[in-house]
Design a protein that fits this description.
- The complex is a heterodimer of chains A (325) and B (64).
- Chain A has five helices and 19 strands.
- Chain A folds into two domains: 107 residues, Rieske [2Fe-2S] iron-sulphur domain (Rieske Iron-sulfur Protein, 3-layer Sandwich); 165 residues, Naphthalene 1,2-dioxygenase Alpha Subunit, Chain A, domain 1 (Alpha-Beta Complex), CATH 3.90.380.
- In chain A, the strands form four sheets. In chain A, strands 12, 13, 14, 15, 16, 17, 18 and 19 form an eight-stranded antiparallel sheet that branches.
- With 64 residues, chain B is an alpha+beta fold.
- Chain B contains two helices and four strands.
- In chain B, 33% of the residues are buried.
- The chains are: A alpha+beta (325), B alpha+beta (64).
- At the A-B interface, α4 of A face loops of B.
Chain lengths: 325, 64
């Protein structure tokens, strides 16, 4: 039983892995949105995501399936599906195969990640993933930390604009009143804030942070601090009704000195992951409060929750809440 | 001066009524604010400014 009145998976793009972890011809099983899926890269170089189980007799294509051309062959009876998921061959049948298909999911590969589109009512993608890697300079390869957390993705994103929790849960000074800007823009949510991190020294490190959320699944925080320019590319993808797969991918613009680059990357990784782990016990045991008595110290939580309703095409509450006037 | 309520956000917490009782009331059953007068007198400005600032859902604003 979910802790929340709304669906476990809002509509949107979700990360399902790094591009460099899926070579041509590689096949991986996935478990997301309460379903079994298979992700593979065809010999044409295109990443694809299908329903995991073969429509014939249910074998999992992600466990022993093999890439053939732009499609995949089932490990059980050798049925071959093409790049669109249509059955292309039944070995030994000697005639045109029946009109059967493995469900193919929309995929967008950009920023160095494979993203899959989920929509509760099966609608086609309604926005694009914001692009980040097409920028100047030389960037370090992604360093990734993966977590499995009992949290709804809506709570993960709410955390970014919940400014009142920063001093209490994290070793951070409250964000500067004059540098806290939240913009709701269609499927995107952009939060800019000046933060003072006191985890490393009492004097604190002042950083300018801009988080761009592309819908519910992708949250990218760019951090500027002096000569440093860093990116935390966070993919948060529901696993089932209760759990979310959270991956924090870090990359930074290389400094002239390689050792300095490595030292900064390691420090960032430590701070980011310490902060993440500080949030986890709150998230895992939190309850949904429908009418929170917010104060002026809180961020725009009510506006955030209204913005979020657009991602619940399959929830009556999204319409009901909006019509309560 | 004009009071504008975003009824999509209002949950009827009643903070505005505490700050500016001459301007606001709360419909407890519907869980939303009632604006007694949409164009309040200038004498209410200070109270209204506090009502806008302290609204839990940031559902209020003033238009000139």
């Amino acid at each position: 039983m979910s802790r929340y009145p709304f669906p476990a998976t809002p509509d949107g793009w979700y990360g399902v892995g790094r591009s460099d972890e899926l070579g041509a011809g590689e096949v991986k099983p996935l478990r997301h949105f309460g379903r079994d899926l298979v992700c593979f890269r065809g010999e044409d170089g295109v990443a694809r995501v299908f329903d995991g189980h073969c429509p014939h007799l249910g074998a999992h294509l992600g466990h022993g399936g093999r890439v053939v051309g732009d499609g995949i062959r089932c490990p059980f009876h050798g049925w071959r599906f093409d790049g669109a998921g249509c059955l292309a061959e039944v070995p030994g049948l000697g005639k045109k195969p029946p009109a059967v298909a493995a469900r193919s999911w929309p995929v967008s590969e950009c920023n160095g990640f494979v993203h899959v589109w989920y929509h509760a009512r099966g609608a086609a993608p309604q926005y694009e993933v914001a692009r980040f890697r097409e920028r100047e300079g030389e960037w370090t390869p992604w360093r990734t930390c993966a977590y499995r957390v009992r949290v709804h993705v809506q709570d993960l994103t709410e955390n970014i604009l919940d400014r009142a929790h920063f001093p209490n849960v994290h070793d951070m000074a409250p964000p500067d009143q004059d540098h806290f800007d939240v913009r709701f823009d269609g499927p995107r949510l952009v939060v800019e804030q000046k933060l003072k991190i006191t985890a490393v020294s009492d004097a604190g490190i002042h950083v300018l942070s801009r988080t761009t959320n592309s819908g519910p699944g992708i949250s990218v925080t760019e951090v500027h601090q002096g000569p440093l320019h860093m990116v935390n590319y966070i993919t948060q993808t529901p696993i089932d009704d209760e759990h979310t797969d959270v991956r924090i991918h870090f990359s930074m613009k290389r400094l002239p000195d390689e050792a300095a680059t490595r030292a900064v990357a390691e420090m960032n990784e430590r701070i980011t992951n310490d902060q993440f782990r500080q949030d986890v016990p709150i998230w895992e045991n939190r309850a949904w409060v429908e009418r929170p008595r917010l104060t002026e110290l809180d961020g725009p939580v009510a506006q955030y929750r209204r913005w979020y309703r657009q991602f619940y095409s399959d929830w009556d509450g999204a319409a009901v809440a909006g019509d309560a006037r | 001066m004009r009071v504008v309520v975003d009824f999509d956000l209002c949950q009827g917490h009643g903070v505005c009524k505490e700050e500016a009782p001459a301007v606001f009331d709360v419909d407890e059953r519907a869980g939303r604010v009632i604006v007694r007068t949409e164009t309040p007198p200038e004498s209410e400005r200070a109270a209204l400014t506090l009502a806008v600032r302290y609204c839990p859902t940031k559902a209020l604003r003033l238009e000139e």
